Every structure is written in C-alpha cells, then in structure tokens.
Amino acid sequence: MQRKIIIDCDPGQDDALMLFLAFASPRELNILGVCAVAGNVPLEKTQRNICILSDIVGNEKVPIFAGCDKPLTNVGLTAEHVHGREGIDGIDIFSPRTNLESKGAVDFIVDTLLSAADDEITIVATGPLTNIASAILRDPAILPKIREIVVMGGAMKEGGNITPSAEFNIFVDPHAAKIVFECGRPIAAFGLDVTHQVFTSPSVLERIAILDNRVANASHGMLSFFGRYDAQKYRAQGAPLHDPCTIAYLLRPELFELKSCNIRVETNSELTMGHTAVDFWGVTGLPANTEWAHSVHRDGFFDLLIERLSRY
Prior knowledge:
Strand order of the largest sheet: 3-2-1-4-5-6-9-7-8
Number of helices: 12
C-alpha cells in the first residue's frame, strides 16, 4: 500500500541518497512535498540542493518548499567541514530547472496535514527538526493527522558526532527536537547507533559505479567526497549513510531492529546540549515515546539502495 509522506531535509550527501531512494520508490511512497531546512549548510544552499537533486532524478511533479533558516532558539550551526562548501560536493553544482514553491515549508506542512485524514501522513525528517516543531507550534491540530514521524537523529551508545554527547541534527535545534519527541505521535528514530552500521566501502562504491546512470554517477561522486572526512574521523573505508535509513525503514522495515524507549532531549546543559537520553532498559519508568532503531542488516540495506539506484 502506498504511503503518503512529506520529506524534510538539509542536503547533505546522505540526504541526497535518501531522496534518490525515495524518488525511486513510487509504488510504496507518495511524496507530497520536499521541504528544506537549514542544517548541513545554510538554507539558501539546502533549498537549492533539493532543486538540483530533483533535476537529477527527473522529478516534475513533487513540489519543493523552503523552510526555516535558523533554529527556534539556538544560534545556527552548519557542517561544511563534513559535506563541503556546497553541501553536496562531489558533483557539479548547476542552476536548477526546478523552482521552489512560493508557499513556505511550514505553511505547506500545516495546510497539508490539516486537510488530511487522521493518521494519514508520515513525516520523514533527516535534518534539524525546526520545520516540524514550528508546524506543531503553529497549529497543534495537525498532530492527529500524523501517522508517524521518522527521524534521523540522536545517539545512545555511539555518543555524539558534533559534541561528545550530541548528534548533529539534534544539537543544531534541541528545542525543536524536544517538541517533536514530546508531541505524542508515533516516532521511529534512526540515530548514530544504527547509522554507524551502514558505512560505505570501496565495494559498495564499485557496485554503484557499475550502474552507470545519471543518478548512480551522482551518488558515486558525492559518496566519494563524503567518505574522505568520515574515513579519517572513524578510521573506516567510507562514510555512514545516516539519512537513507529512514526511507529504507519505510520500504523494508524488516531490515531494522527497533525497541520502544522513552527519549528525552537535553536543552539546558551547556556540556550536554542536544543529548538524547534513550531509556533503552526502561530504568526511568517513563512511558515509551519512540521506536529506537539499534540494529540493521547491512547487506540488505545496501542491496536495497543499489537496486533502487539501478531503476534510474
């Protein structure tokens, strides 16, 4: 059965692979819109990058919206040191043919949800959660319309990748993350504990290169660039594909193991700002608010990704 989704992202090479995976799956996913948020690079570039990626996949019907250019409260933070100056370095940057919609992303999210049936629309969020939290704050009546929020963010055993205890997406806007995790709707979260199990490798890049289509070639270029930083940081052969885990979960949930947990987000401590306190063993007695992904079938994940890239 086709699932209606809204994608909210901040490309980012791994966001790009997430979008490629989603656009290759029209039988399973009805993408109502793609929203840009400031994150890996400033909003001006994330919104442009989505339009470039839309051109690369040949999208002519899914609308693109620009969202929030800064966090709810914190000072903005970007990650050019990981993703490069343009965010999707590894491909040629061009002026996209795809245009942004005049409506803003938060307005689009609110209007789309208010016109939907209860439990109808899934939100996939792979950047800071500013747009999603802003929509909830603007009109809480959208909440019953949300079937599930699928988030890339957080960490438990893996610690942090931007501070010792915080994952980047949550750290950039912890106040937005707190609103989302406490919103009362079903959440599936894919943090570093699971995304660090899907590092690329030379053999994966070779399998992508062999496909030799426009999207696969763009993927190969971006992942080759993306892997340089993470290979040094993690002493690995490539980079973790954080964001595609969200779409892979929607397409093949059996690839992942998830556990019902309570998650709270730190918003006060200077030392641990953005930390996700994942109550994996239920020691707090607090009710679970999230399905926390902690394991993935790596080979199955990459088989899925490469099969979908071969469709272009």
